[in-house]
Amino acid sequence: MIAIIDYGAGNIFSVKNALDYLGLESALVKDEKSVREADKIILPGVGAFPAAMEMLDKSGLVPVIRQEAKRKPFLGICLGMQVIFEKGYEFGEHEGLGLIPGSVRKMEEPGLVIPHMGWNKLEKLNDCPLLENIGEEEFVYFVHSYKAHTEDRYIAAYSQYGGRVPALVWDGNFVYGAQFHPEKSGNTGLNILKSFGGLIK
Amino acid sequence: MLAKRIIPCLDVRNGKVVKGVNFEGVRDVGDPVECAEEYNKQGADEIVFYDITASFEGRGVFLDVVRETAKKVFVPLTVGGGIKTVDDIRETLRAGADKVSVNSQAVQNPQLIKDGADIFGSQCICVGIDAKKIADRKWTVYINGGRVDMGIDLIDWVHTIEELGAGEICLNSIDADGTKEGFDIEMLRAVCDNCSIPVIASGGAGKIGDFAEVFEKTGATAALAASLFHFRELTVGQVKDYCRQHGVIMR
Prior knowledge:
By secondary structure, chain A is of the alpha/beta class. Chain A is built from 6 helices and 14 strands. Chain A is 25% helix and 29% strand.
């Protein structure tokens, strides 16, 4: 069972719909026990970094997420990907979950239309289990104004938008993060979620 | 590189598509869920549902359509029409919409844009604008489906909504709409040059070359059409192939 963490932020129904469509068993959860018992965890999210961290703090799930993400496959989506880094600089400096080294900052290249909204091509940088069924000319759907800054070795794929935008990150173990929305990225996104569903503890 | 988006729009009344469509393999031509699935197969980058229902009962049926579509179509869904309050936005997003499009209501109550953006994020607030030319390089904003001139300067309104937190603009040209003579290049340029949020071109698409033209000549990041796709004059796939052949990046 995949636990979709419901902490009051964002597109949880879209993620649930996509997993249902793929026949992957999932549940919206908001308690510690369900997170511990799940085989895998998805952390969705839309909105602002500090608001999301505040809601996560209030939910009391931060410690259990930090522990469980070391034991079983964990996927953060969009803002849920951004909060897996150490720090976010949206409305001041805020602490993230710190599951992957790095920070999240505003995209600020001159003349760039913000938010980065629409379909962009995935450029593979490092091998990653979630990209096994993904070809060279595949696009995924992004909506965001902040991007991750992290070492290349954590970047499985990026997209070009005023420079490199980390699209899919992986710690090499259980922690994955997608800046794009796999649940809104057509068949490419569904394939990525299917690969996530096939990962084993 | 970011791809340009092709967006078909479906007008829905009491849970049925208003304009008749005739897709092969679609059993019920009036069923918006099946039409959305067909557009998805054709490669639509996003799908817009526009609710033209007047009644409370119709609204419930419409949201059921959104809910059903969100279970089968995994590209972004934008929902417009009948959104007057923050609660309407919440209800629409909870039904499975990724964005809401507000138009007349935003002109009459600009605070709706700010409240919506503050609570749900700018990314899900698209502001639809109907505008008409009144003088050289000057346009005003209309409401109620292009029937009422509000006397507001288009560029002033664009600045206002960007400051209020709109995440995207869907710009419909009243002059071009229905003419099939191409998008309103001059107006789109004026708006794209005066804002830094994405702009969807709407109104006037009549032939395949119109889409490549709008992407070549303006900063629009997406182009929307309704009847052209409804009546199968063109498929989304044909439009995207043509744009690709003309050097426009497409998914």
